[in-house]
Design a protein that fits this description.
By secondary structure, this protein is α+β, with helices and mostly antiparallel strands. The protein is built from 9 helices and 6 strands; from the N terminus they run αββαββαβαααααβα. A 4-stranded antiparallel beta sheet has the order 1-2-4-3, covered by helices on one side. Strands 5-6 form a two-stranded antiparallel ribbon.
Length: 277
């Protein structure tokens, strides 16, 4: 089972909303089955479960890439059991020496992480933008990138600000978000999930100092989120992007959107760029 375990090792390094890790794995000799864990949810922050499914799609994509390190051809079946919608994928491994060579993105699976700090790299060269978008088509999924200073980028920033005001002003949404925040280091080490000060975009010094203070309330977390969006994320970004699907409430589409995001983020990491969803 060493091979299938390596796939799981890559899967758990995938992006997931609020680091909720909404997955469970069943490992066999010939592959891995991936299951949704609905209880690991964002509540009113994700009422349709689309973000949760996107996180699962990201894990599936990581695992498919990792299969190339085993030298075994891999076949991915999404939603393989109509009677069990929580069974989101089955990854079947072929015989030894039947697969393609190791994928060049493999080293970046462990290096990819969400970046919430300011972008200080300036404008992006066309070659790097092309590298981010260089991946096989996902059925029904389209990626659009546009400069932050363009009319579309300015409109996107205004809508993002408006949405963030609405979210942070909603007590139920902020409470559901806040329950995944791990202020205490011992909680982060015990639970191995959720968000911490170290992942919030502040400097290591501020993260260390903040951990010594009383835990933030959900309202304070909302104020920080809105301030970061307005003062850091939107004004310093070089580009914005949209992952588009005509069927946003379809479970298969949500999984493919997550796979596309994971691939985009791996491409960006390989190109020396940082990103956040």
């Amino acid at each position: 089972l060493v091979g299938p375990l390596k796939l799981v090792g890559a899967g758990v390094l995938a992006a997931s909303p609020h680091n909720t890790q909404p997955w469970a794995f069943a490992i066999g000799r010939f592959g891995v089955d991936i299951f949704e864990v609905p209880s690991r949810n964002l509540g009113t922050m994700d009422p349709f479960g689309r973000e949760r499914l996107a996180g699962l799609g990201a894990a599936i994509h990581n695992m498919a890439l990792a299969s190339t390190a085993l030298g075994r051809a891999a076949r991915v079946r999404l939603l393989p059991d109509p009677q069990n919608p929580a069974h989101v994928a089955r990854l079947i491994l072929g015989p030894d020496n039947s697969g393609p060579p190791p994928h060049p993105l493999l080293p970046f699976i462990a290096r990819r992480h969400t970046h919430r700090g300011p972008w200080r790299g300036g404008p992006l060269a066309e070659a790097k933008l092309a590298a981010v978008q260089n991946f096989p088509a996902f059925p029904g999924i389209r990626l659009v990138l546009f400069g932050a200073g363009t009319p579309l980028g300015q409109r996107f920033a205004a809508l993002t600000d408006e949405a963030t005001v609405a979210i942070t002003g909603d007590a139920a949404m902020m409470a559901d978000s806040h329950r995944w925040f791990r202020h205490e280091r011992r909680d982060a080490e015990r639970l191995m999930d959720g968000l911490t000060l170290a992942t919030s975009g502040v400097s290591p010094f501020l993260a260390t100092a903040g951990a010594l203070l009383p835990a933030q309330s959900a309202a304070d977390e909302g104020k920080y989120w809105l301030a970061s969006t307005r003062d850091t994320h939107l004004p310093t970004a070089s580009h914005f992007g949209l992952i588009l699907t005509p069927t946003p409430h379809d479970r298969r589409s949500a999984l493919l959107v997550g796979s596309a995001w994971q691939r985009i983020h791996l491409n960006a990491t390989a190109a020396g760029l940082v990103a956040q969803p």
